[in-house]
Amino acid sequence: MSETAPSTGDPIEARCTKCRKNTSHTIIIMGEEGPEKVQCGTCDRQHKYRPPTAPRKPATRKPVDPRIAERKEWEELRPSLDSAAARDYSMDGEYRVNNLINHPLFGLGLVQRIAGARKVDVLFEDGRKTMRCK
User: Fold this and answer.
1) Phi and psi torsions of 68, nearest 5°
2) Residue 110 in contact with residue 104, Cβ under 8 Å?
3) Is 19 within the bounds of a domain?
4) Which terminus has fewer CB within 10 Å in the chain: N or C?
């Protein structure tokens, strides 16, 4: 099967300057090198021939594991934390942001935010935990 050279009036795939996408066009003027001027089949605009562009590969973002971000945040904060100033954790205790607590299971932690009535978010070495409080 042999391919014939395109000629005036033949359909061709091209990049439309008005539609800004690859569409079907009709060749209006042929030059020595190939099509010079085409007409878009969608918007009927005549323009210089531009070869179709390759479809863009969608950007893929690797989801960030929150545990990795929390671990990094902990490693940055740890040198500035004084474990002697930490209070022992109690569900009946009252805590404020930036209070240090010492939990029997999770170890040293930093209160990061008040998460609602009777709850605080605490950053431990193992990650962020929501803890009950008064």
Assistant:
1) -70, -45
2) no
3) yes
4) N
Q: 100-111, pLDDT tens digit by residue?
A: 999 999 999 999
Q: Are 29 and 8 in contact (CB under 8 A)?
A: yes
Specify the pTM: 0.52
pLDDT in tens, 5-45: 888 999 999 999 899 899 999 999 998 888 999 999 999 99
Q: Is 107:125 a contact under the CB 8 Å cutoff?
A: yes
> Which pairs with CB-CB distance under 8 Å and at least 24 residues apart come from 21-25?
22/52, 22/53, 25/49
Q: Do residues 121 and 130 lie in contact, with contact meaning Cβ atoms separated by under 8 Å?
A: yes
The answer to whether the beta carbons of residues 25 and 41 sit under 8 Å apart is: yes
Do 81 and 26 sit in the same domain of this protein?
no
Which of 72, 70, 107 is CA-nearest to residue 86? 107
- Please list the residues that pair with 62 across neighbouring strands: none
Q: What is the Cα–Cα distance from 42 to 121, expressed in whole angstroms?
A: 56
Dihedral of CA 61/62/63/69: which sign? negative
